[in-house]
Design brief:
With 313 residues, this protein is of the alpha/beta class. It has eleven helices and twelve strands.
């Protein structure tokens, strides 16, 4: 390995790539890290490859359970964490300059949005604005917009869905991921790269509560009825039943964690509605509080990988 050129490193490596590299280590999959950082998997892979080219050595090693840092990658990860720790310290010192941003900020969202997207970003916001009292409620996706419209929450973060009533709220694109199919490893469908709703309806399709409406509508479009035998709120519980051989399920890809690698088969769901779009909702005609305005600006800071579409109505 040649000597690492310090100036070249400073010029070529950006903080976002370092953050993506740390996410890949934490998620143990570049694809999940890409979802977490809201870029395409191909873009994430290319960024990691460029980082390895600059370092002149492999930084990630591929194993049956996912990616792990190489010895050189572990060194880079340690120093990258030191960089981000320093940035956190700087934000703390800046807190005295942001004392005007304070008060209670009420947020409503669904678990499938909080876990992969919101939790980390709300943590960063809380450290930067310690005088803001964040109040986060987990509610069903269909109820999020209504609570915001009634003034019961300052900000809602929801997944767009067919037929969702958006009257009374302003909607801003935030993130996107996709719905995937999860089947047992020994299932006849496991050898396919993609499936459709026509493939899944004849199976014991375990329904996430938030997707029952979408599944029924998709089945009706192909002339089938869908009456789920199992309905679960938790994606992890649904995948556990799949692993036990009780059926198949569909889930947001960001919720299929690396712990399921090699235990279930994850397939592309080749349906137009499988593109999952996440949006921010605020009450129409109501002025933002300073805290709400700053949080929205922070949530929208991360780069959007492709043009966001209008929410489905």
């Amino acid at each position: 390995m040649g000597t690492l050129n310090r100036l070249h490193l400073i010029r070529q490596v950006d903080l976002f790539t370092l953050r993506l590299f740390l996410s890949a280590i934490e998620e143990q999959q570049i694809g999940l890290a890409a979802i977490r950082e809201n870029i395409a998997a191909s873009t994430a892979t290319k960024r990691i490859q460029v980082l390895e080219n600059i370092a002149g050595v492999k930084l990630l090693e591929r194993t049956p359970k996912g990616v792990v840092p190489s010895p050189a990658g572990a060194i880079l990860a340690r120093h990258a964490r030191m960089i981000f720790d320093s940035l956190d310290d700087m934000r703390t010192e800046f807190a005295s300059l942001t004392e005007g941003v304070q008060g209670e900020l009420r947020i409503v969202s669904a678990r499938s949005v909080i876990v992969p997207f919101l939790a980390r970003e709300l943590g960063e916001f809380s450290r930067e604005y310690p005088l803001v009292d964040l109040v986060v409620h987990e509610v069903e996706n269909a109820d999020i917009v209504q609570e915001v419209a009634r003034g019961e929450a300052d900000l809602g973060v929801f997944a767009s869905a067919y037929g969702l009533d958006l009257d009374g709220v302003e909607v801003t694109p935030y993130r996107r991921d996709r719905i995937v199919a999860v089947v047992p490893l020994d299932h006849p469908l496991s050898g396919q790269t993609s499936v459709t709703i026509r493939d899944l309806v004849p199976e014991n399709l375990i329904a996430p509560r938030a997707l029952i409406g979408a599944l029924r509508a998709a089945a009706q479009r192909i002339g089938e009825d869908y009456a789920p035998k199992h309905v679960l709120r938790s994606g992890g519980s649904a995948i556990s039943l799949v692993h036990a051989g009780l059926g198949v399920t569909v889930q947001p890809e960001c919720l299929v964690g690396h712990e399921w690698t090699g235990r279930v088969a994850v397939l592309e769901l080749a349906e137009p509605w499988a593109a999952r779009r996440i949006h921010l909702a605020t009450a129409r005609g109501r002025e933002f509080s300073p805290a709400t305005k700053v949080l929205i600006e922070q949530l929208l800071t991360r780069p959007i990988d492709e043009d966001q579409l209008e929410p489905d109505r």
